[in-house]
Structures are given as C-alpha cells and as structure tokens.
Amino acid sequence: MSSPVYVALDTPDLERAKALAQRVHNHVGGIKLGLEFFMANGRHGVREMAEIGLPIFLDLKFHDIPNTVAKAIQALRPLEPSILTVHASGGRAMLEDAKAAAPAGTKVVAVTMLTSLDASDLSSIGLTPDPHEQVVRLAELAKSAGVDGIVCSGEEVAAAKAAWHDGFFVVPGVRPANGTIGDQKRVVTPRAALDSGASILVIGRPITQAADPDQAAREIEATI
Questions:
Q1: In angstroms, rounded to a whole number, what is the distance separating the alpha carbons of residues 204 and 133?
Q2: What is the pLDDT of residue 73?
Q3: Would you state the torsion angle of the CA atoms of residues 130, 136, 137, 140, taken in this order, to the nearest 10 degrees?
Q4: Sign for the pseudo-dihedral over CA of 106, 111, 112, 115
Q5: Catalytic residue among 32, 61, 99, 143
Q6: Is 185 a catalytic residue?
Q7: What pLDDT does residue 1 have?
C-alpha cells in the first residue's frame, strides 16, 4: 500500500519542486500542488511534476458561481489530477457541478474550514464560533452534494468519519510530534490523524524545509 502522505510543494520554483519530489518520492504517496505553484507554472508545470510518477493533488480551492467552477474544472480535465479541491461554502449547486465536470478518476474534495482559522476567525466572518460544528455541517452538505470527501483538520476528522463512513478525508495541518506549527492553528500528529479516520495527510514544511527532506519523509513514514 502506498503512503498516505502527500507532500505539499508550495513553491513557485518548478526546478525546486521537481528536485524535492524526486528526493522524497519513495516515501510519500503523492504530490500536492497549490495556488503558488500553479500560478507560476500552470498546466505545463503540473504535467512536468506528473512525469515523476506520483499522483497529483491539485489544490486550487475553487469557489465561484457553479458555471464558472465547472468550466474551470473542465479546462483542467486533460491533466487528470488524482484529487481536486473546491470550497464547501460555495454551496450545493457548485459542489454538484464541480463533481460533474471532473474527470471520472478524480476525487473532488470540499474544503470545510481552513486549518489557519480558529473560533475567533469564524466569529469575525459572521459564523458560529465552533469549528467542530462548522466542519460537520459542511461535511453533511458535501456528502449530500455527491462529492468524494472533505478537507478538515485532524481535530474534526473523527466526527466527520462517523457521519460519513465511506468519505475521503484529507487532513492538512499535520505536524510531527517535534515539529513547528507555523501559521497553522489546529494541528495533529500524522499517527493521530490516521487513527481518527484520515484517508490522506498533507505535509509540507516538516518535509520540504528539513535539512534532509528524504530523511524527514522516512521518519514520518516510520511513525505511521
């Protein structure tokens, strides 16, 4: 079985991204490419990364009117990413159209609440200041809209898994026990996230900013 770890290559530098991916490819299960990479390198860059031979998680977090999101995803179809993200708060019609537009083999997962937010952030944008409640509500929406799963923190994944047994759960904000938290506010260790029901783990800086990224990936792999 391949590793549940997707390494987040959040850099605009294509050569650096390729070098990192090649160093760690034996100890991760896939590559996550986000807005920073995509805006710098576009579809060409994604194709180059795909040549390394690992599944590609394209983390662009679409959030717009349903037609716009559907057309954007259709434009990415030739890339055949393994996973695509949209924002659950875009609503049911947007989620349904996103899934309908995606290639058959692509998992569409809905971002519930960014792991950089906490209760005070929810209050500031007019939502109930309870991350757990917000995530579960949006997980139920995502399930009913027919997408494949959600993105949520390790703190909420157990509750989401209980409500959606066969959902696909992406957990970012994962940090090894001895890791620095950075700008994340709701973090868990890789082992704890998997035990709670995570399908895959997104890990960036603890691997990519390590003195020896390959060794860091090996050490994380050993804990899971």
A1: 27
A2: 98
A3: 180
A4: positive
A5: 61
A6: no
A7: 62
Alpha helices in the chain (DSSP H): 14-24, 35-50, 66-76, 92-101, 119-124, 131-145, 157-163, 190-196, 205-208, 213-223
Tell me which range, 18-27, 132-141, 187-196, is most confidently predicted by mean pLDDT. Answer: 18-27
Span 194-204, mean pLDDT? Answer: 95
**Rounded (5°) CA angle 87-88-89:** 90
Q: Which of 119, 209, 107, 217 is nearest to 151 (CA)?
A: 107
> Which pLDDT tens digit goes with each residue over 65-118?
999 999 999 999 999 999 999 999 999 999 999 999 999 999 999 999 777 777
- DSSP H or E stretch at residue 108: strand 107-111
CA distance 113 to 131: 7
Taking the alpha carbons at both ends of the chain, their separation in whole angstroms is 12
Distance CA 98, CA 130 (A): 27
- Kindly indicate the confidence band of residue 173, based on its pLDDT and cuts at 50, 70 and 90: confident
CA–CA dist 15, 22 (Å, integer): 11
